[in-house]
Design brief:
4-stranded antiparallel sheet, single chain, 362 residues
Length: 362
Amino acid sequence: MKRTVALVVGLFSLACTGKGGEEPDDTGLTAEERQQADIEHYQAVERGLRASRVEIAGDGPTELTAVGPNLFWLDYHQQWDPTVYVTEPGGEPRALRVIAYDTLNWRVSDALLVNAVPDFGVVAYEVVDLDGNALGTTELPAPGGGRRWWAYAADADDVYVVDEDADALLRFAPGGTPELVTTFTDLGVDLGIFMDFDVEGDEMIFVESGRIWTADLDAGTATWLENETEASAVATNDTHIVYTSASGLQIVERATMETTALADAVAGYALNPTFTTLQSPSGGGFSVVGDQLVYLGSSGVFAYDMVSGAVEPLLLDQRYDDVETVEYVNPTATSDGVLYVKGLVSEPGRPGSEARIYRVEP
């Protein structure tokens, strides 16, 4: 996602008073006046970015997930009927499927939603399209050892399941019979604790025992990224792999396999002399759209261009407001460059907050 942000410099004409024995700087401002000017600059930038923000949902949304041009999220506003919603380009949010509270799991592609439902020794992988219409159900034996379903994923019109007992990656169309894609032995992987995976086209990205692997399903080969700390979430494009770990967000360049910490890559950015660490990664969700890595900073949402190295604020936390404050969490972006983010909204002086989903057009 590429956004050009016009930074309105709010440097108001402040008299040089020299209060407290402070010496003016090169702008003719004391330290106190300089800080106030920087706060006003922050406010001006924040308001400018906020102008393109539109609220699309409230009532406790969570688990924002972007796949292709669509946004999905889970809404707990009815405690015993958690509901997955979808927003397609140009459309309004609509309920897609109720997920059983005691078996809460779901995966999506740009064409379908899958829900694994355990039932007396089998797991039914129930599939619906993005209008909520049932496409079919495929049953597989349930895993043992206290696990209720195997890890699964969706890509386009197919569902993938990792059967660890069989050391196998399976694939099936909605309601169809599973077929073997490959085994991990054939990929050259001594499978440890399998954690999660995703498939896009012929590439599988998976995490086992904290290690990140990329697998070429056509060639039947797998490559370990040699990450030094246990990884969790992963996002990719054609040139980079981004993952989060105990060491923070890491960027791997595919061509060289060199790894760069996002915190180091963005350290040179500053909004102004007072606000020098707003862009520092703080966890809480990220997306890769084109060459842009969209992530949560210490006070807002930022984009880092993994090719040029440019850093841009997309939204700044609404901190200096007499009416309400907004702290952003869980940013995600769709393939058409639209930013979606969850905002925790509170009124100054009152405890608690409510969650809303905002959309920001590119």
